Amino acid sequence: MPTPTTGKRPLSAERILATAARTLREEGVDAISIRKLASKLGVSPMAIYRHIENKDALLSALLDRFIRQADVMPARDLPWDEWLSQLGLRMWRAQVEEPAWIGLLGSVQIRSGGLGVLLDSLAHLRQAGFSADDAASAFFAVVHISVGASCLSLGLQQIRLDALIDPSDAAHLNQLNRDFGSLHKLLAAQHIERSLALLMDGLRARHTL
In this structure, how many other beta carbons lie within 10 angstroms of the beta carbon of residue 108? Predict the structure, then answer.
């Protein structure tokens, strides 16, 4: 009967999560299952179930581990608008560096790591003078931009521009060239810094009213 050890290394929740995180990063979410992890670790599935309740609990714990290791919170002594911009950039970088999470965000239960980012961010904005409603709106606007930019960045990496060009699109491409210079230049406008700068302009105007 398999034992919950491989060699002299005891099985632990952290060892399970480290193996699952590496599998997610290298093979994608479809490769995540209790049975497959058990095979990688050289143990029985029941040995893993002693530490992790089920696949949903595994993904939730993985997300919490990812958020904690991403360390997205900026230095607290920054001006609030720079702090928010840095928060958005850090969230975006974390996602594009671990793109397997992009398709899972919103479908995996958040634990204390994610809740900590939310509560600490709201508290920081309240200290900067934001109302409760405005603090929540500002935080989630940054989240929306970072997640959207991550999805777009991942999608653009997979696009071959020459495959998009069809003879029937000539008129549209000519119009794009007249208005923006080139399709490459238009796509460059998706950079998250520009979106965050526009958001900060709006928040500064609202916050000083």
Answer: 19
DSSP annotation of 5: E
Grouping H, G, I as helix, E, B as strand and the rest as coil, residue 208 is coil
Compute how many other C-beta atoms are within 10 angstroms of the C-beta atom of residue 150.
23
SS3 assignment, position 46: helix
The runs of H, that is alpha helices, within the chain are 13-27, 34-41, 45-49, 55-70, 80-97, 112-127, 132-157, 161-164, 170-180, 183-188, 192-207
How confident is the model over 62-101, as pLDDT tens digits?
999 999 999 999 999 999 999 999 999 999 999 989 988 8
The CATH number assigned to the domain holding 196 equals 1.10.357.10
Q: How far apart are CA 136 and CA 138, in angstroms?
A: 6
Q: In this structure, are 78 and 9 located in the same domain?
A: no
Same-domain status, 123 and 151: yes
Domain boundaries, position 94: 72-207
Do 22 and 106 belong together in one domain? no
Residues 88 and 190 in one domain: yes
The amino acid occupying position 199 is L
Residue 49: Cβ within 10 Å count: 13
Q: Tokens 């230049």 label which residue?
A: 185
